Amino acid sequence: MARADQGSPPSLSVFFPAYNDSGTIASLVITALQTAAKLTPDYEVIVVNDGSSDSTAQILDELARIYPQLKVVTHEVNRGYGGALRTGFASAIKDVVFYTDGDAQYDPSEITALWPALTPGVDLVNGYKISRSDPLHRIIIGRIYHHTVKVLFGLRVRDVDCDFRLLRRSIFDRVRLEKNSGVICLEMMKKIQDAGFTIVEVPVHHYHRAHGQSQFFNFPRLFRTAIDVLKLWYALVVRQSHRRAPTPLADDASRRGVGMRVL
Question: What pTM value is reported for the model?
């Protein structure tokens, strides 16, 4: 594993899960390479091609020939968003890991907004959307989802579904992710919070989708997500509460939001 010398910046892995993102992935990779080079001399960019059926694979092959810092990991069959994230985290070899989606609704150059917040006492810098650039129905569904899971799981982050995160890779020495669906973000934030890691939140921009369409916002997928959320809630909240009763001190710490800061 790459280690940063004292006084030098940590090494950085940037990765994108990509599924039929041929219209956006090239610009994202190039932007990530340019941005990472400004932050640290030791970096890599990874794209997890999650069984794309468009020209994503061909574009990535060409980019990999041009940029030696780019690593492409291919799923021959689509494993879902969670499966792609798990592969990305497992493939990253640097001290710090950043990821965002391959559809370009977030700008990788804004890693520079998160980077200064990753001070020695911080484990995860979580982006939160300044304003959501989506159709009205997606905004409404997103807000309902966020407020529902925040209550169900006792989450203190203000934006659990903002996939723009900078994490210390050492987190995954203690946190094991299991989900293959989109609820992996909920699983990840709940497990990281419960493990006592320190989280800081930083505002980032969210942009309209320029290419492709969301794989999430259709009724069958929403129904499956609701079932998956309930299963996760039972596993991480109900069963855990049966195993251990919180102490008054822990309750007080939870109410005060220990381990959370918003910049």
Answer: 0.85
